[in-house]
Amino acid sequence: MLLKTLDKQDLDDFEHRVTKRIKDFSADDRFPQMENYKVTRRMLDDYLFDKQAVLDSKGSERTQLTVAGTLIVLPIIVLSAIPEQSYPFGHWTFFVFLAIGVLLALIVGAVIRLLIRIRLRRLSNPVIDRFINDVLNYEP
User: Which 8-state DSSP code applies to residue 125?
Assistant: First the structure.
């Protein structure tokens, strides 16, 4: 059961959606042709591979949740090293440190998304992007 789920997930990524769409509809006359965009198959494959690598760099959902959970708990672990009499916010210290952990997890998540966006922008090729957009928006 898990293997079927993983196979389906692998086939739903960006690279596979584009290549499957090209494979399914390339015989149609109205379907966007690579030659019209001056794009070779190798250029497209390399671009899709690189773009998918950037999209996958954030990790799986499980990895993301593990990192977030660790970052949320980290300030609480630091708090456990402080004697209760020295808590800076009294009884509210636990909640303050928990909020710090949540904030830390949100900041790390935002930085990761920002880095992915920057890498995608740097990788961007307007001609290939226009071809991919036309392929994905093609209605038979």
Answer: -
